[in-house]
Amino acid sequence: MTADVSSPARGDRRSPLGTPSGGGFAGAAIAEWLKLWTVRSTWSCLLGAVVLQIGYSVIVGLAGRSQERSGTSDAANMTVPETAVGGTLYMAQFAVIALVALSIAGEYATGAIGPSLLCVPVRGRLLAAKSLVITLVLFAAGVLLAVLGMAVAAMTLGGSGKETTGSDLLAHTLAIGAYLALAAVVVVGIGAVMRSMAGTLTATLVIMLVVPVGLMLTKADALVAAADFLPGPAGVHLMYGSTGPYGRGVALLVLAGWAALALVAGYAVLRRRDA
């Protein structure tokens, strides 16, 4: 008795020539998801971000309680969500940036970009899939970091600081998640352009931190105003909400614009220079 090989089994997606077909964007996204979670560096960077966030919240919370005991007025202005924002902005985000840089520039460093492009030859699809996975993971990580930071800050601050409402806590939590997600996309685009860990990290810090600080130090009104629309300051306005020349809605649009610009630049370089 011989098997009938004239028609494939149901669910077996094969072309008429017998070679596997399918995959598309969903397959590319699944591949990026697996690549992200099957390397040790992802877990190390996320653990580092958690440790930094908790450490910052403990230090600031204890400092606030100490200030209250000594009668320092600054303690009364501290809030639990702003402590979590500070932990993300000054500490945890650097571990997150390293994670994102490894996900794109690390592939060039190890030579893994070659197999990635062979499996997903459509360059735009590869970059979009990587960006989608990174965005989802970093949004969830941002929410987790916000919750941890606020919980630790509430315990260490005790009765110190200003009272906050539930809606304020939720707004800050979502803002931290959105900031890390969009900042991650910016890093993906920079990584596709720079194609090296050192170049990606350096360019990211220059764009997100060095240039805005430099412009603000000039004290020139036009330059200070321009600095507010760079991705770093826009992220600050997004997370804090009540600071800066514009609110969270505009800050979100500014960050989204920088993320789109970074992806376009990364796609252009990826098409021209390949692996």
TrEMBL record:
Pfam families: ABC2_membrane_4 (PF12730). The chain crosses the membrane at residues 43-64, 94-120, 132-157, 169-193, 205-230, 250-270. Residues 1-20 are annotated as: Disordered. Keywords: Membrane, Transmembrane, Transmembrane helix. The keyword Metal-binding does not apply. This is ABC transporter. It comes from Actinomadura rubrisoli.
